[in-house]
Design goal:
Layout (H helix, E strand, L loop, with lengths): L1 H23 L36 E4 L7 E3 L8 E3 L2 E3 L7 E3 L6 E8 L14 E5 L3 E5 L34 E8 L2 E2 L5 E3 L2 E6 L2 E8 L21 E2 L10 E9 L1
Antiparallel strand pairs: 1-15, 2-5, 3-4, 4-15, 5-14, 6-9, 6-15, 7-8, 7-14, 9-12, 10-11, 12-13
The structure holds magnesium ion (MG).
Magnesium ion binds next to strand 7 and strand 8.
Length: 256
């Protein structure tokens, strides 16, 4: 009998507590569409470039518009000394690389390149150049139209670190476009990556690399090295292979 009374008392207390809890925690207000709509800040207005020519958006830094190399310098010192003609710039293989005078952190880069229709050579010796991000990490430029090479060294690779997801080459004599989205690294005090750099590469509208985590510098011989650095320039490579020289046009960058 005593046990029954105790059980009944416990049930009564539990019911009372439960009722109190319900009173303290009222049913939440029903969600309305406006509750998940944010109106500020509004994105800044950027006037896009021409869709057909991929010209620079209104807030881009134009690095080469076909007229001169005033935004660039030579890796050997002094002015950039490749050949500007007919709205394009062609590598001078007797000169060095060229680098932007300005340094950049994270960015979106557009660059177009073309090898001559009559290009010769095979594998890495055919229209080899490259875009170095922050002067450290090479996105390979190479004529891979019907030209096989080691897969982690083909056009759009982070050189010798990753095989691109596609070969999206246009044939020699036609223009290729790279759109590169790069997130700069953050370093620990000991010089290792706290946040490694990452890159997305699109060639001619085709995704080649999707937020690839860069492992370090892009070495011809040996493994990537992690070298602490801050902002850095864009470097275009003068490769010493004997094939006919590559040309560039319409280069612009947007930092973010
Ligand atoms: Mg190269």
């Amino acid at each position: 009998m005593r046990r029954i009374i105790f059980t009944l008392l416990a049930l009564a207390v539990a019911t009372a507590v439960s009722a109190q809890e319900k009173k303290e925690y009222p049913k939440p207000e029903a969600m309305r569409p406006a509750m998940t709509e944010f109106w500020t800040p509004q994105p800044k207005v950027v006037k896009p470039g021409d869709a057909a020519t991929c010209s620079a958006p209104s807030d881009a830094i134009v690095l080469f518009d076909g007229s001169n190399l005033s935004a660039w310098k030579s890796s050997r010192g002094g002015d950039a000394d490749w050949v500007v003609h007919d709205g394009v710039v062609t590598v001078d293989k007797s000169k060095g690389d060229i680098l932007t005078k300005q340094s950049f952190g994270s960015f979106q880069l557009h660059i177009e390149w073309c090898v001559p229709e009559n290009i010769t050579g095979t594998s890495q010796g055919r229209g080899n150049s490259g875009v170095f991000l922050q002067d450290k990490y090479e996105i390979q430029i190479l004529d891979n139209y019907g030209n096989e090479t080691y897969a982690n060294g083909q056009a759009g690779s982070v050189y010798k670190q990753v095989i691109p997801m596609a070969n999206a080459m246009r044939k020699p004599g036609e223009w290729n476009a790279y759109d590169i989205i790069y997130n700069a690294p953050v370093f620990n005090d000991d010089g290792t990556y706290k946040v490694a750099p990452t890159v997305t590469v699109i060639q001619n509208g085709v995704l080649l690399l999707n937020n690839f985590v860069i492992r370090g510098t892009t070495e011809y011989i040996g493994h990537p090295r992690v070298v602490p650095h801050g902002d850095g320039p864009i470097r275009l490579q003068m490769h010493g292979d004997p094939s006919e020289p590559i040309s560039f046009r319409n280069i612009w960058i947007r930092e973010f």
